[in-house]
Amino acid sequence: MAKARSIGIGMDYSATSKIALKWAIDNLIEEGDKIIIIHVVSSKLDPTNKQLFEDTGSPLIPLDEFREINVSKYYGLNPDREVLDMLDTVSKLKKVIVVAKVYWGDAREKLCDAAEHLKLDSLVVGSRGLGVLKRVLLGSVSNHVVQNATCPVTVVKASPPK
């Protein structure tokens, strides 16, 4: 049997991050893998525990705990029912371990930090599909992560509206 892999998924509850999660579940996640849902909370939000975990991110939070609204709020998150349901389903059907980890700061830097510190085998992120000018001005998170992460990165684009 192959070694269980650690697969990180960048999650901000946007439509594109949900599409990336669904893609990973359908195409990448295999039985026995570990899924780490990586949240990066803007530095503007200042939950009391931010100082405690600012450099290393939160401890790994098991899915059962993460479902509890108090736990999510403690980390400054507002979890999405659809995401939790997808994670519950994949954890049961494919027998994978699902944990969450929260970082504070710039998503570009923190996703790269997560890839390195968590020794991820793969990282999946969504792409908002910014135009060239916006990407140059704002800097694309997915571009930065592809260039700088210490593991393979899959960027999942939202399909264009029909």
Automatic annotation (TrEMBL):
Lineage, opening ranks: Eukaryota, Viridiplantae, Streptophyta, Embryophyta, Tracheophyta
Cited Gene3D superfamilies: HUPs
InterPro entries per the UniProt record, alphabetical: Rossmann-like_a/b/a_fold (IPR014729), Universal_stress_UspA (IPR006015), UspA (IPR006016)
Species whose genome carries this gene: Nicotiana attenuata
Residue ranges of every copy of the UspA domain listed in the record: 5-157
Regions crossing the membrane: none
Protein name listed in UniProt: UspA domain-containing protein
Family matches, as SUPFAM superfamilies: Adenine nucleotide alpha hydrolases-like (SSF52402)
Coiled coil (residue ranges): none
